[in-house]
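for the writeup, i need someone to sanity check this before i put it in the appendix. the sequnce is what the collaborator sent (i think, or maybe the updated version? ugh). structure was predicted straight from it, no edits. if anything looks off just tell me and ill rerun, i have time this weekend
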Amino acid sequence: MVNVEVLERDLAREGHRVTAPRHVLLQALNSLGDHFSAEGLAAAAPGVGRATVFRTLRLLQSVGAVCQVVLDDGAVQYRLTTAGHHHHIVCSRCGVVNDFVACDITDLLEELARRTGYDIAAHRLEVYGTCAGCQTGLGATARPGKPTSSRSA
């Protein structure tokens, strides 16, 4: 469940206006649950333009309220989050997504910066595999619709 008032306060604190369309989109998040697509959000907020949906999703990402998950088939989903910097492990069969925070790639990033001359500003990691439930035949059956989610990995 989304606390719309908290999200609106967070946006205002960051200097962003809470316009009527943004308010409608934040309200729509309540009906979508933890995982949703941009198209699903647009459908849940009739009358709000697609460009506004995508701009609002980018804004929510920038303030850390939403993160993007790229599924193994390339489909993009969004997820409400308060986890800060984290990554995802995605089941290729049922679509369940777990967060994890372990990210010991500092040496790799430093080596990439040295080799390429890049000033690396950020990274994103998504790992794909088959969850324990699907391996035993007890996995979620979310595919091909909405992924399910779990916060503990």
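The CA atoms of residues 96 and 148 lie 5 Å apart. The longest helix spans residues 20-32.
thx in advance!!
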